[in-house]
């Protein structure tokens, strides 16, 4: 049988998305309705059905040919072309008969993936940070080394499947007779039975425990970024491969900066006179530095200056960063003294701007005082 990855034309570490894309592309050209070769199409679809599901893919990665060692069906089986792929086709058609979807003769499921949330500040998302997180996972039992059998005892060969881990049955379907292979219900696919269970894990081979995992959060993570720690998820049953640990990053909102992609935005209040005449400000940055920001003369509310490469770093590294956009907000003074008011009135006069003779609040009261 050809390598399934080769059939789909993808690398062994291809993502689920890559596999889906490769299948769609090839399925179009191989489909019998569009003049493709039926055998190639079936082979392609069967390969896709194994690799699209993480569990069956992991089984394939671990055990290779899903017919298993010494696979029972040779070229002379009565099911013709289908027989060669019967396990695959079985999973493709969703398991007619008693076969569970995606079951293979090996039956060894890798451990499940685990997910943990880690909250960081925007400063930490920018610089990167190392965090110790507690992860509650099932881990291989150390007492029995994951076998589930009490120390000093060994599991015996399963009496139901005679150690094969799977049982064969003939299922009738709209496609005719099909030979299907299902995981042995007695031994769960391991081919062995435990007579004396390990007292520590009750024969499960795994124990739940809280483990501290050190996570290196790289610079540039965003809210929702998932980091994958290979093999740090739940331990597999009976010594099967462990799942992966996914660390989901939560970035807390920041008082000053708002993030959009790799760019940062902030709003800066500029007093009216500085907005008119121009000013130099010192703006605190995420890394603790200050950056000089020039407010040009005649700045209006909503005007923006862009500081290049002062945004968030790109997760891909290489020193690339986004930009920082500073949005100015012109502020009118609310606390002018009588002397300042006089100056402003003089300014208005010079500019030919009409202002009412009396102000409000404090100034109305002053006016009352003059009248008295
Ligand atoms: Zn144990
Ligand atoms: Zn069995």
How do the helices and strands line up, and which of them pair or pack?
Layout: H1 4-8, H2 16-30, H3 38-51, H4 54-63, H5 80-84, H6 86-92, E1 114-120, H7 122-127, E2 129-140, E3 156-157, E4 166-173, E5 176-183, E6 192-193, E7 206-217, E8 226-229, E9 245-251, E10 258-260, E11 263-271, H8 272-277, E12 279-284, E13 290-295, E14 304-307, E15 324-331, H9 338-350, H10 362-371
Parallel strand pairs: 1-9, 11-15
Antiparallel strand pairs: 2-7, 3-6, 4-5, 8-9, 10-11, 12-13, 14-15
Helix pairs in contact: 2-3, 3-6
This protein binds zinc ion (2 copies).
One zinc ion is lined by residues 141, 143-144, 148, 198, 200-201, 205.
Précis, in short:
It contains ten helices and 15 strands. It is of the alpha+beta class and 372 residues long. Mean pLDDT is 81; it is low at 66-106.
How would you write the strand order of the largest sheet? 10-11-15-14
Number of strands: 15
Number of domains: 4
Helix count equals: 10
Distance between the termini: 107 Å
- CATH top-level class of the largest domain: Mainly Alpha
- Percentage of residues in DSSP E strands: 25-35%
Largest sheet: 4 strands, mixed
Please identify which CATH superfamily of the largest domain we are dealing with: DnaJ domain
Kindly name the structural category.
alpha+beta
Name the CATH architecture of the largest domain. Answer: Orthogonal Bundle
The small-molecule ligands in this entry are: zinc ion
- CATH fold title of the largest domain: Helix Hairpins
Segments where pLDDT lies below 50 for 5+ residues? 66-106
Shape: elongated
Order of helices and strands: HHHHHHEHEEEEEEEEEEHEEEEHH
| Helix percent band | 10-25%
Spatial extent as radius of gyration:
35 Å
Overall mean pLDDT? 81
């Amino acid at each position: 049988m050809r390598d399934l990855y080769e059939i789909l034309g993808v690398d062994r570490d291809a993502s689920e998305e890559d596999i889906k894309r490769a299948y769609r592309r090839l399925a179009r050209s191989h489909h019998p309705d569009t003049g493709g070769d039926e055998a190639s199409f079936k082979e392609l679809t069967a390969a896709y059905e194994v690799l699209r599901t993480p569990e069956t893919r992991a089984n394939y990665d671990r055990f290779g040919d899903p017919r298993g060692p010494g696979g029972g069906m040779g070229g002379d089986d009565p099911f013709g072309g289908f027989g060669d792929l019967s396990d695959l086709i079985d999973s493709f058609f969703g398991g007619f008969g008693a076969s569970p979807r995606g079951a293979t003769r090996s039956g060894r499921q890798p451990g499940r993936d685990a997910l943990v949330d880690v909250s960081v500040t925007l400063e930490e998302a920018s610089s990167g940070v190392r965090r110790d997180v507690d992860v509650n996972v099932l881990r291989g039992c150390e007492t029995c080394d994951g076998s589930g059998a009490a120390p000093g005892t060994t599991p015996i060969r399963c009496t139901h499947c005679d150690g094969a881990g799977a049982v064969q049955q003939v299922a009738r379907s709209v496609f005719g007779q099909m030979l299907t292979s299902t995981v042995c219900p007695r031994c769960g696919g391991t081919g062995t039975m435990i007579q004396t269970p390990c007292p520590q894990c009750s024969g499960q081979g795994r124990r739940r425990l809280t483990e501290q995992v050190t996570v290196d959060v790289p610079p540039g993570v965003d809210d929702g970024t998932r980091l994958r720690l290979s093999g740090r998820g739940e331990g597999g049953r009976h010594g099967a491969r462990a799942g992966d640990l996914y660390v989901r990053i939560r970035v807390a909102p920041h008082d000053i900066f708002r993030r959009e992609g790799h760019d940062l935005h902030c709003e800066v209040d500029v007093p009216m006179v500085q907005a008119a005449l121009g000013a130099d400000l010192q703006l605190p940055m995420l890394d603790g530095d200050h950056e000089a920001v020039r407010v040009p003369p005649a700045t209006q509310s909503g005007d923006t200056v862009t500081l290049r490469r002062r945004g968030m770093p790109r997760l891909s590294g290489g020193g690339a960063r986004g930009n920082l956009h500073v949005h100015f907000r012109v502020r009118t003074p609310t606390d002018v003294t009588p002397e300042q008011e006089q100056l402003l009135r003089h300014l208005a006069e010079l500019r030919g701007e009409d202002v009412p003779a009396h102000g409000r609040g404090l100034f109305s009261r002053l006016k009352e005082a003059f009248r008295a």
